[in-house]
Amino acid sequence: MSQTNDNLYQHFADRFPADASAVCLDGSDGRSLTYGELAAQSARYASVLASLGVQPGDRVAAQVDKSLEAVCLYLGCLRAGAVFLPMNTAYQQGEVAHLLGDARPVVFAVRPALQAMAREVAAGVPGVQVLTLGDDGSGELAALAEAAPTDFAPVQRSRSDLAAILYTSGTTGKPKGAMLTHGNLLAGVSTLHAFWRFVPGDVLLHVLPIFHIHGLFVALHCALWNGSTIRFELRFDATRVVRLLPQSTVFMGVPTHYVRLLDEPGFDAEACRTMRLFVSGSAPLLPDTFQRFAERTGHTILERYGMTEGGMFTSNPYAGERRCGTVGQALPGVSVRVADEAGNALPAGTVGGIQVKGANVFAGYWQLPEKTAEEHTADGYFKTGDLGVMAADGYVNIVGRSKDLVISGGLNVYPKEVEEVIDDMPGVVESAVIGLPHADLGEAVTAVVVCRPGAAVSEADVVAHVKARLAGFKVPRAVHVVEDLPRNTMGKVQKNLLRAQFTA
Ligand code: MLC
Ligand code: AMP
Fold this sequence. Notes:
Elements: H1 8-15, E1 23-27, E2 32-34, H2 35-51, E3 59-63, H3 68-80, E4 83-86, H4 93-103, E5 107-110, H5 115-122, E6 129-132, H6 140-146, E7 162-168, E8 176-181, H7 182-195, E9 203-206, H8 213-226, E10 229-232, H9 238-244, E11 250-253, H10 255-262, E12 277-280, H11 287-297, E13 302-307, E14 311-315, E15 329-330, E16 334-339, E17 352-358, H12 369-374, E18 382-390, E19 396-401, E20 406-408, E21 411-413, H13 415-423, E22 428-438, E23 442-451, H14 459-467, E24 478-482, H15 495-502
Parallel strand pairs: 1-10, 3-4, 3-5, 5-6, 9-10, 9-11, 11-12, 12-13, 23-24
Antiparallel strand pairs: 1-2, 7-8, 13-14, 14-15, 16-17, 17-18, 18-19, 20-21, 22-23
Helix pairs in contact: 2-3, 2-6, 4-5, 7-8, 10-11
Bound molecules: malonyl-coenzyme A and adenosine monophosphate (AMP).
């Protein structure tokens, strides 16, 4: 009996439109790919990876711009049975070095402009081959793909085989690799596709980066599963979005996108006349944004909640009440509970840790079995680090985080990582990094710094120092120099007091 192939690509391909000339990716740079071309191009990338020695289970890292090629490389990885490791294009040398050293990829695809840096980093990582990939069909990988065959049978994969590793930071400041299997991604996309009622003819307006789960595993996957046309915006531009909405039916974004759309004069019910769904997530959607959006457009944003370690956990309903300030109820197939540390579910209305379990929840942290065990309860629930309250009818409110985390424009910034960089500056004794309310970004990274007596460390010095070492979105938007940091009797810095002191 032949074995089912649970390679995620095979499942996508089984659902691609019968008409191979149907448009899949319609890029904002004027380039596009039909479903037939997507199948042929991703086969070429799979062939190239195999010819470079990539075996099933090997990692393939990519720090490339959002592009048609980036999607084909991703799908090529799946087809070749490789494990895809996407990186934020804003990551600096030190951040890239950690990921490469930890994941040990066989191939590292990089933007042509950054190849010198990539090659320098890769020189310290045995076995990695660096190849360039531009966003316009240029680069070494694209040239190899050009000459490769357009057929490649997807490598046999079971649901428990790894499909991707996405790095996510933690309280230790060092990013850990969340391992996602073909089965995790299949469970995620099939649930969301049904729950959000995708229909033939849906057109997704895609504005998110594709190196995080929101843009890659939520938005792109749902559209591919549906065989939809994707208006593929290489960057978010609110004015363009308003222009493209009348040719689209579904939009997914972070709250900052919605705040910026509301600032657009032409954004109204007429611009949204063909739309059937607006989804928000990755950061809290403020009630003010939710309400103003409804008044302006007549649409109620559907807020959902999830995490790199498992995709989506809860969602407001498609047809029922989309309750403002909540992230909805557990998705089908996902168990969500609000519990104490020991894993005892708490009564409705009580604040506790949000814990989740389901086929979409990850397979653990790459080569960190102890950390994986620490983050799970004895009965197999993953501890998200988010604090919430569940109502009697299952709607969840996220009320805070037990993890020390700032979310800026939908991107996570772990204070510890920024503090370590600032503390290394000559003249600095210590620092505390906090998130303060910000109208556009939700939260703004803010540093509070204690200097050595007589040392002159300015805001500009701190900003320049961090900017040279970490991705731009982690750079403090404001720096306050203080005499000392408030501490509790245990010696722990009281960040709540700092937040209160510096909130305008
Ligand atoms: C960019 N910059 C940011 C920033 N994004 N600063 C703080 N926070 C951010 N999020 C800085 C850059 O470093 C640069 O600084 C300047 O802003 C302009 O850069 P840009 O690239 O032109 O910015 P812009 O296009 O305005 O980007 C804003 C944004 C983007 C909101 C469109 O950040 C974005 O796409 N966010 C979505 C992230 C996302 O996909 N999150 C999902 C993660 S998955 P300088 O100094 O160089 O000028 C997840 C799970 C889940 O969370 O539930 O979904
Ligand atoms: P990441 O680790 O980048 O995947 O980010 C996941 C985190 O984003 C979660 O643990 C939450 O803290 C936060 N998050 C995602 N969706 C929402 C939401 N709708 N409301 C509030 N926080 C959210």
